[in-house]
Amino acid sequence: MRTVDGFILTPEGFVQGQLHIEQGRIARISGTPVSEYEVRHGAQALPIVLPGFVDVHVHGGGGFDTMEGGESALRMARVHVRHGTTSLLATTMTAPLDEIRSAMAALAQQVRERAPGSARVLGVHLEGPYINPGKLGAQPAFAKAATLEEVMDLHAQAPIRLITLAPELEGNLALLPQLRAAGFQVQIGHTLGSYEDGVAALQQGAEGFTHLFNAMPGLHHREPGMVGAALAHARYAEIIPDLLHVHPGAIRVALRSIPCLFCVTDSTAAAGMPDGDYRLGRHTVKKCLGGVRLPDGTLAGSTLTMDQALRNLVFQLGLEIADASQRVSTFAADFLGLDDRGRLAAGAHADVVVLDRGLQLQRVVVEGEEIDLANAG
Asked: Where on the tree of life does the source sit, at the highest rank (predicted)?
């Protein structure tokens, strides 16, 4: 049996005590309830124990890009686990179908079996090609409307858990109920759709929005746009809290409007790497000044890691640790329909991060495995 001691965040709140792990699962949590104030400011500066982070939008890290195939997903998962991400979705880029198919075939092994020292790759987030060619952002110009046959063909290469699509493309809206019936979660993104398009997509089965505010029409009081549809109607949406993609004030608006707003990194191969040129699908992107951009200056993913996302929420936006933890762990797991990840409770996977009061990582446990943070990756 492995144990973790400290201030442990349970679904009911913090307890000062001990978390017990058996066979990769949480066996029980024992302790005495404490307030968050005591956790952050009390005389006892014990470790803070939170659920491992869940990131549903990861393109790369450590110099490796999902679309490269080979061992890129494994290397990426070993980079992000060093920053507390215990489970993730490997995210593809818009590309010709044969390139997407090849990349997904390479992902299949990592999805089937978690390699030691890595985060769990839960499946694939298919971010393209079913997006609007007029709102590509950093996506290459191979956008197209979706068909169920095509999606199922890609799904046969590696399990798709999440699909981003633009509902205004011909056929995409009508396809939504079929995608949901087939078990896929769907987000609206890379879209030029209107408020009405967003509402219709939610009614047809879409449940979230891909990197809210980015690559979609903004809010205007006479044309609420896709952002307006999200703020008015969504329960779930991704947001990139690197404080570069979205202004802190806009994040605060979303926090007040969308009950289960959750964080993603949208990280690229440049995450965890020095400034320089990196791959993002077919693009070459440059990391500099804390961001990643195309040659024309367009933001192209991020260098964010989930531990930094947590710190940004708490120290820059002023969220309570318990609230911030839900937004980097629990809500994303709930969105994917996973009740045994993203929370510290008996029976859940033993995905655990241990931090100091500055929310700097001290330990990471994935499915009961203690990660060697010094040598991982």
From this structure: Bacteria
